[in-house]
């Protein structure tokens, strides 16, 4: 038979003896383990990856160890844990190596596409010039003289090529923002169309002009002008397909972060799934608050604390089945579940009280520090120009007066891993340089900002994985769901089509609003 009971209220008389026995057992176990650890012969089936000291691991007991930490600023970026929560097996190592190989393949594909596009663009711009120069080089003496109309066509070709060059540079020669898994369909279609078009012109030019050595030079120049005009029309088509087609909103997407449930809504036009994913990620870094895993450990620590308060004693001996222990644990947890909402309520109320208290202390400390800045500025106006301090030195001078209050507030709100001392000094010197108020300085710390506000090395995810049942090159449709996954969380995107709106008009006769007020001259008085 197994019995589950609360360890906080049972067997209190044996706590002293059990503490000594556990201590002796732990010391004996350490003595037996030390030779093995020195030899390094212990074999494990998994490899543990530890994060660098600049990014601490926030375990389940981070909130409990909050009050016992030292007040030194440097300790806010260090945590000591027994085991790491991030461990991978040999299969995961093989998968990571495969991802690295895939990334190398993506880089090769990107440079190959850029090379093909550059070679094709160079061919497009040199083709009209070659059409005009080849007859002058090969059969110059047999050509008919070029009149005024022919010379005017030279100016037309030059300006049209200049306009085409500027438009091509503005539309195509942009720094890529991301690597997409598949080829952009419309851009590939335009490249194929341009290649076929230029190839057809070269084929006609070789058969009808080069072979026959046509002497009508004005007709040859007119042929080159027609090529440039056609290229301009293709450029207009590229603007419509690549830029204008997606401007009209057709779909509404809901983006939900899987860890904390934060969501946003966006309107998109006719886009493929992979391009819609890029738009979602661009808006994510701007609109979503920074992902803070420390805020998600509260529920885990609360559940672990409830289960830690339960202990099972096997009074029937070691031969009893373990299923009875599981049933006893479940029954005891169900009895304690009734009071868990009260504990949650008081924990949240206490946390809000501490946040408000430390926020008030921080506001007062920052206001006093900025008042000291005004006194320093008044004193510096009386000094010589060579003795005045720059904003960086001023920030370093007043920072210690607010460091303790800011450190405690960031620890309470679990934001200390996103704000280093160097970044705070830079922000303070920036505020001093631009003569900003204390509220402007505190805005970054009192309210969690968007992801782009913080240090790039801490928030930027180098690789996202697009998971979709449909082909990523297909367009958006009503009801499509795809997932953008990174290392710590994922973004679930649900696509809904904007409904068709039927708007009718109703005419109201202006005369229907008129009325007549009749007053009786005779009254009862």
From TrEMBL:
The chain crosses the membrane at residues 111-133, 153-172, 184-204, 224-244. Residues 74-86 have a biased composition (Polar residues). The keyword Transferase does not apply. It is found in: Cell membrane. Keywords: Cell membrane, Membrane, Transmembrane, Transmembrane helix. It is a multi-pass membrane protein. Its main location: membrane. Residues 19-35 have a biased composition (Basic residues). Residues 1-86 are annotated as: Disordered. It holds the Pfam family Strabismus. Residues 36-45 have a biased composition (Basic and acidic residues). GO terms for cellular component: plasma membrane. Belongs to the Vang family. This is VANG1 protein.
């Amino acid at each position: 038979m197994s019995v589950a009971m609360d360890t906080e209220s049972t067997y209190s008389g044996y706590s002293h003896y059990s503490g000594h026995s556990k201590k002796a057992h732990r010391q004996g176990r350490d003595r037996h383990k030390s030779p093995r650890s020195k030899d390094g012969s212990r074999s494990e089936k998994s490899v543990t990856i530890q994060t660098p000291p600049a990014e601490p691991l926030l375990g389940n007991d981070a909130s409990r160890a909050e009050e016992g930490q030292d007040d030194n600023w440097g300790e806010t970026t260090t945590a000591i844990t027994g085991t790491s929560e991030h461990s991978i097996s040999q299969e995961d190592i093989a998968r990571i190596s495969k991802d690295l190989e895939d990334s190398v393949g993506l880089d090769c594909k990107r440079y190959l596409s850029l090379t093909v596009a550059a070679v094709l663009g160079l061919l497009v711009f040199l083709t009209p010039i070659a059409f005009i120069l080849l007859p002058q080089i090969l059969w110059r003496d047999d050509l008919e003289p070029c009149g005024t109309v022919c010379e005017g066509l030279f100016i037309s070709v030059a300006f049209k090529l200049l306009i085409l060059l500027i438009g091509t540079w503005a539309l195509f020669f942009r720094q890529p923002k991301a690597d997409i898994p598949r080829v952009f369909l419309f851009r590939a279609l335009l490249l194929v169309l341009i290649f076929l078009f230029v190839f057809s012109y070269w084929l006609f030019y070789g058969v009808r002009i080069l072979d026959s050595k046509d002497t009508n030079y004005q007709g040859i120049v007119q042929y080159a002008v027609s090529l440039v005009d056609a290229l301009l029309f293709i450029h207009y088509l590229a603007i419509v397909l690549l830029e204008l087609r997606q401007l009209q909103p057709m779909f509404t997407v809901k983006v939900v972060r899987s860890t904390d449930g934060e969501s946003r809504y966006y309107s998109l036009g006719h886009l493929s799934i992979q391009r819609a994913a890029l738009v979602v990620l661009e808006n994510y870094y701007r609109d979503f608050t920074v992902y803070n895993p420390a805020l998600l450990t509260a529920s885990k620590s609360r559940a672990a604390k409830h289960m830690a308060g339960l202990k099972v004693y096997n009074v029937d001996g070691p031969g009893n089945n373990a299923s009875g222990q599981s049933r006893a644990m479940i029954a005891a947890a169900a009895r304690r579940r009734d009071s868990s909402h009260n504990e949650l309520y008081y924990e949240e109320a206490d946390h809000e009280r501490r946040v408000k208290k430390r926020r008030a202390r921080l506001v007062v400390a920052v206001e006093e520090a900025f008042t000291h800045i005004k006194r320093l500025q008044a004193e510096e106006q009386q000094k010589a120009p060579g003795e005045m301090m720059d904003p960086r030195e001023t920030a370093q001078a007043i920072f210690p007066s607010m460091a303790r209050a800011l450190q405690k507030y960031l620890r309470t709100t679990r934001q200390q891993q996103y704000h280093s001392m160097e970044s705070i000094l830079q922000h303070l010197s920036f505020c001093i340089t631009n003569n900003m108020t204390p509220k402007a300085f505190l805005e970054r710390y009192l309210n969690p900002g968007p992801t782009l506000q913080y240090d790039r090395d801490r928030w930027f995810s180098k690789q996202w994985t697009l998971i979709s049942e449909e082909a990523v090159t297909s367009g958006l449709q009503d009801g499509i769901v795809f997932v953008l996954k990174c290392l710590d969380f994922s973004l679930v995107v649900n696509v809904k089509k904007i409904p068709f709106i039927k708007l009718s008009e109703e005419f109201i006769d202006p005369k229907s609003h008129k009325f007549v007020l009749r007053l009786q001259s005779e009254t009862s008085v």
